[in-house]
Design brief:
The complex is a heterodimer of chains A (116) and B (109). Chain A has 116 residues and is mainly beta. Chain A contains no helices and 11 strands. In chain B, strands 2, 4, 5, 9, 10 and 11 form a 6-stranded mixed beta sheet that branches. The chains are: A mainly beta (116), B mainly beta (109).
Chain lengths: 116, 109
């Protein structure tokens, strides 16, 4: 039973296309996240949703739009893909946004996006 | 600005002990996490420290000094499978996780 699953695992597409990445968690967590990990391995938060509501929206281009139909799903849609979007995108979830007891984030396996 | 520093790469020998350091400067502090990430895989949770001192969990221990803005991850009895990147992340005053770039640990036989 996969706790956080995201699809697809690999995504190869051309510049200018629109694509979506899906994420689902079966842990009953309240909060879900999208991260971008570039070639230098920095994990950069993009979005965070708590119970379907956006609570973090870091400075990312508005070509990136998250959608959360329910608290178990957080999808990422990307319009007009650019070369610089090539990276690994990780979905994650945690029990709450105020982890005063150190609630860890659980990550999906990542989506490797390559723009040609 | 917020900053987390870790060495880029470390090498150690199988069976030995290695200490991976992390220093941080963040706006507020609500705890520090260590994650392990094998190449091509997702980060997985190792430890969480919010109070000063040492937390031990099997072969792995994590230490925190809030006054110094410093933590380390100690790995004992190294095994080849410990070859991975180790990511330090700090929860700031807004409960946002600030991530370091990670330390790539190479284990040699």
């Amino acid at each position: 039973d996969t706790a956080v699953s995201q699809t697809p695992k690999y995504l190869v597409t051309q510049m200018g296309n629109d694509k979506s990445i899906k994420c689902e968690q079966n842990l009953g967590h309240d909060t879900m996240y999208w991260y971008k990990q570039d070639s230098k391995k920095f994990l950069k938060i993009m979005f965070s949703y708590n119970n379907k509501e956006l609570i973090i929206n870091e400075t990312v281009p508005n070509r990136f739009s998250p959608k959360s139909p329910d608290k178990a799903h957080l999808n990422l849609h990307i319009n007009s893909l650019e070369l610089g979007d090539s990276a690994v995108y990780f979905c994650a979830s945690s029990q709450s946004t105020s982890p005063e007891v150190g609630q860890p984030q659980h990550f999906g396996d990542g989506t490797r996006l390559s723009i040609l | 600005g917020q900053n987390i520093d870790q060495p880029t790469e470390m090498t150690a020998t199988e069976g030995a002990i290695v200490q991976i350091n992390c220093t941080y400067q963040t706006s507020g502090f609500n705890g520090l996490f260590w994650y392990q990430q094998h190449a091509g895989e997702a980060p997985t949770f190792l430890s969480y420290n919010v109070l000063d001192g040492l937390e031990e969990k099997g072969r792995f221990s994590s230490f925190l000094s809030r006054s110094k803005g410093y933590s380390y991850l100690l790995l004992k009895e190294l095994q080849m499978k410990d070859s991975a990147s180790y990511l330090c992340a700090v929860l700031d005053s807004n409960y946002q996780l600030i991530w370091g770039a990670g330390t790539k640990l190479i284990i040699k036989p």
